[in-house]
Structure formats: C-alpha cells, structure tokens
Amino acid sequence: MTDDTPRPVDGLVTPRFAAPATFMRLPLRDSAEEIDIALLGIPFDGAVTNRPGTRHGPRALRDASCLMRRVHPVSLIEPYRLCRIADLGDAETNPVDVMATLKLVEERAAKIRSTGAWVFGVGGDHLMSLPLLRALKRAAPSTPPLGMVHFDAHSDTTDTYFGGTRYTHGTPFRRAIEEGLLDPRRVVQIGIRGSLYERDDMAYAESVGIRIIRIEECEELGPDGIAAEARRVTAGGPTYLTFDIDSLDPAFAPGTGTPEVGGLTPREAMRILRGLRGIPLVGADLVEVSPPFDPGGNTAMVGATMMFEILCLLAEARAAY
C-alpha cells in the first residue's frame, strides 16, 4: 500500500461522527482512474411498485457506513490493503423517467469499467442491477453470461406489471436473462418467500433453471449449506452478487419498499456471505434501503454492515483476478 492509496478516515484520529459522509469514509473521487473498486450510489426509486424512498438509500448508507472499521473480524481481510477503493459519488438519475435513468446509470457504470475499475452499486431500487449488468457486458462483450448470487425475498423475474410495464424493481433479472447478461443455470436466489399474485408466479424462474432457495429450505440447509449450494450453482465462473435488504426479516430491516416477514437474520446473512469466499465475483450491488420507513436508521446500519461484508469478498476477488 503506497502513500497515495485511498484509505478510510481513521476513526482513532477523526471520530466516526465527524468529517463529510462518504461510503466507508473513503475519499470521494471524480474519476475511477487508478481505482480498483468504485462504490457508486444510485439514488432512484422510480421503478418501485409499492413503497418509495430508496432514492434516499445511498445517502443514508454513507452516513451509516461511518460505523464500519477497516478489518473484517473473522477473515481479517482489510479490503483497503488489497485494492484501491474510492467513493465515486452518485450516478445521474432522472427521478421521473425510468428508461432515461437506465441509460444514465449504464453509461456511468460503463465509464467506470472503461478505466478497469469494478463497480459496487449502492441503490436505489432493484431495477438498478440491470444497467450495472449491462455495463459489465459492454466491458467484456465476448464473455459468457454471468452467474449470480441473489439475496432477496422476491425472485424479481416477473415479466410485466400493470398491464405491460416491463421495467420495474420486480423484473430486472428476467430482462437480464433475456438480454444474455445472466446464465439462469448459474443463478441462485436465497431467502425467497412471501405471498404470490398467481400460482405460477415462479414458473418462469423455475423453467429457465434458476436455483431458488426458499426461506423454508434456508432453515433446513443452514448458512453453511446455503453457501455451499451457492458455490455449486455458480460453478466457479464469473459471478455477480446482488443483495436486496428485504432478504432480511423486517424486524431487523423495516426500511424497505416491500417487506416480507420470516426472513433471514443479519447473522445468518453474514454467515452465508462469509461462506462465499473464493467465488470469482466481478461486481456487486446492495439495494432497496428506504430510510423514510425506518426513522431510527437501523436498516441503513444493517445495510452498511452487509456492504462491508460484500466489499471484503469483492476486494479479495479483485486482488486474485
């Protein structure tokens, strides 16, 4: 680590409640040049179908991430020693135009990828995974579709909403599969639960070969078994990781647009994430934190903790790339 390597503000020098808020207290950069991993906020909730507010997620997660220290307590990974990491600010969005926002986010992520940096997106609603995946494909158009580890209460593979709307936070991974961005046979979804609109709501996901680990099976497998299954499904190829905060039980993360009771605990999610070490990740996001529905800020704190867990995985994968 050289003298110009980006480092978080030292909490033993400057108290964690002080200094401007950035992701993990990292430097705020205009350019991803000479950066390995760019943390990119995506303040958008124009594609939600229930409760709004995720446009405020990146700002709340910046505030909450000041609580994160530098070294993982179990693996002892210090991501900032493995990689050059910085906060790249927020992608431009159009709060009243979904299609324009998809283009804006894709262009910003593609610009970052053109420098060689990897993108860790911080949303924002779950549709924002789609432009991030599109940007990854643009950076390496000849590579096969990616695998994906997907933490969520919902499959997000619905075709349309409200009589034909194809782009919502409930449709991103159907679109990603149709566009050849994801290989559904290498996609695992963890924590799926909740009531359905129709009996066949999961038919598409099952028909294309997505491995769905519903919450009932999560109980049977336990965190170590879930991680092992995720490793089996993704099968060692390039893989994306997406974490919807509603994969967690709303007792721990009430600030989200579509909460579903009976979800994972933060401890279980952390155990699963720690079991994913060695999967060749190439990008990640954390989405659906809606601060207005949690005035106490616990959802953002839990989200920032999951961000740090994911950042450690991503930094280790990038260092080994």
Structure description:
With 321 residues, the protein is of the alpha/beta class. The protein has one domain: Arginase, Chain A (3-Layer(aba) Sandwich). The chain is built from nine helices and eight strands. The protein has an eight-stranded parallel sheet with strand order 2-1-3-8-7-4-5-6, with helices on both faces. Helix 1 (57-64) crosses helix 9. The protein is globular. The two termini are 18 Å apart.
Largest sheet: 8 strands, parallel
How many separate domains make up the residues? 1
Mean pLDDT, nearest integer? 96
The structural class is alpha/beta
Q: What is the 3D shape?
A: globular
For the record, what CATH class applies?
A: Alpha Beta
Work out the helix count: 9
Residues in β-strands, percent: 15-25%
**Poorly predicted ranges:** none
Helical content (DSSP H or I, runs of 4+): 25-40%
What is the helix/strand order?
EHHEHEHEHEHEHEHEH
Rounded to the nearest angstrom, the radius of gyration is 18 Å
Q: Which strand order spans the largest sheet, edge to edge or round the barrel? A: 2-1-3-8-7-4-5-6
Query: At the third CATH level, what is the topology name?
Result: Arginase, Chain A
Measure the end-to-end span.
18 Å
CATH superfamily: Ureohydrolase domain
